[in-house]
Task: structure prediction
Amino acid sequence: MRRSLLGILTVFLIGTLLGTSAIGCGDENGGGGGKVKIIIGEITDLTGPASPAIWTLHTCLEDWVRYINEENFIPGVELDIVSWDNKYEVERDIPGYEWVKQKGAKLIVCVIPQSGVILKPYADKDETIVVNLSVNSGMLTPPGWVFGMSAPHDPMVKALMKWLHEEDWDKPGEIPRIGIVGWNEAAIITQKKAMEEYCQDHPDQFTYAGGYITPFNTMMFTAEVKALKDCDYILPMGFPACTFIKQYQTAGYSATYLDVGVATAYRGFFARQCGWPALDGWLSANVTLYRDQDTAMVKQAVDVLYRYHPDQAEEIIDAGFSYIGGWHNLAATFEILKRAIEQVGPENFSQQAYYDAAINYSTSSSMWEGYPTDYGDFNAEKRYLINYIDIYEFDADLQDLVRVNDEWYPLLW
Result:
């Protein structure tokens, strides 16, 4: 009996050791099934004022990682995410950067433009890859380790204004008045500067009515409404845009509202806040497509969304551009990661490998069919991806966003 018990214990111990050894070999780099685990660090607003637009983009990142892992999109690799909520507070970006690095992140994804600007000196010094899904010019120069997966707001503003002059303004002999209003943050400051510059360069096209930058969290725009009362076009920027529009319309004024890819991200939130009649005719320059377009990229995004969130899919799409537009941005992010790993192998992946793949990247694969041949690229000096805008309009009759035409328009610097 004693020898039998000893034999059982011996077999058990040997089995345990063999099992532990097998796990160690298959999980040497933290992955499962012999795969190398790569951690994606996310710095975003999950609970602050931008979260009504960003929560679906957070969902999109989770879905991309799940899709990559399940479909073996990057062979030999398993991805995981660690997320930091910056609550749209600039002072939380640097602690978030340090936290995701401590968690092992080899690729950091940010959403808000100011995050890339704030983190650029740290990323450049540490040679840490930061991918920003929205772009501010302050993160672009000198070219370093922050890569913007969209287009900067300033050339988007200028391209939109050129389009307005050529395609929208219908009162020959009159010069429209244009102005801008928003909180004191990086994106509104660059857009204001771009509008000023375009008006100075083209005084025969627009009269500049002024740019009004208010303290963060301002929700009363009495002075700004009065200052912009005679405008034909107004760009109300970001989260408080709908609040400004309601106050502007309550005061008895009307204008065509403008946007560069922010209002469309808040589509559902703004529709609930303002109602579709108040939003009707709002024109938005964007860098990606929405559900109304039949491209492989859009179809893939919608298919994955319905696969993983069948009960929430319509709500997520109705929320705005963030999910489908974010699918575009993250497609480029992970296509670069895939190319980097193909070049050096999963075990040798490093942030330098990602950097080297990124500065040679262009949207030339089959994933980008239906887009301009030079739709997006990076190089040794260029740190924003997308080179074009398209125009969408808020349509109250359809209660949806509708592409104005089928053309793409180049950015204007």
Residues 36-151+293-382 form a domain with the Rossmann fold fold (CATH 3.40.50.2300).
